[in-house]
Amino acid sequence: MQFSVEWIGYAAAALTTSSFLPQALKTIKTHDTRALSLGMYFMFTLGVLLWLIYGLFIDNASIIAANAVTFLLAATILGFKVFNMRQGGE
């Protein structure tokens, strides 16, 4: 069996992407975003989107997969944050 360095990328992608799942699930369940920084989530979501675009340009499956999922999770949290601020809940 030959070792492929690509598996390191997939492992890193799985760990960093799944780290956002608990926050996203909690935010979806409670709609509570008071403790979350709007600036941080905006910059993070934009950065993840740029990583996704980069992955598409270089055609790297691990970068594309990780950042597509992370972007969806981060954008969900950001959406709740912005919605709550507009509703006066922050």
Describe this structure in words.
By secondary structure, the chain is an all-alpha fold. The protein has one domain: Monooxygenase (Up-down Bundle). Helices cover 78% and strands 0% of the residues. It contains 4 helices and no strands. The chain has helices at residues 6-18, 21-30, 38-58, 61-86. Helix 2 (21-30) packs parallel to helix 4. It is elongated and about 55 Å long. The mean pLDDT is 89.
What is this structure's SSE topology?
Blueprint: H1 6-18, H2 21-30, H3 38-58, H4 61-86
Shape: elongated
Number of helices: 4
- Number of beta-strand segments: 0
The helix-and-strand class reads mainly alpha
What percentage of the residues does DSSP assign to strands (E)? Answer: under 5%
Q: Termini distance? A: 54 Å
Number of structurally distinct domains = 1
Provide tags for this entry.
78% helix; 0% strand; Monooxygenase; mainly alpha
Summarize the structure.
The protein has 90 residues and is an all-alpha fold. 78% of the residues lie in helices and 0% in strands. Helix 1 runs parallel beside helix 4, helix 2 (21-30) runs parallel beside helix 4 and helix 3 (38-58) runs antiparallel to helix 4 (61-86).
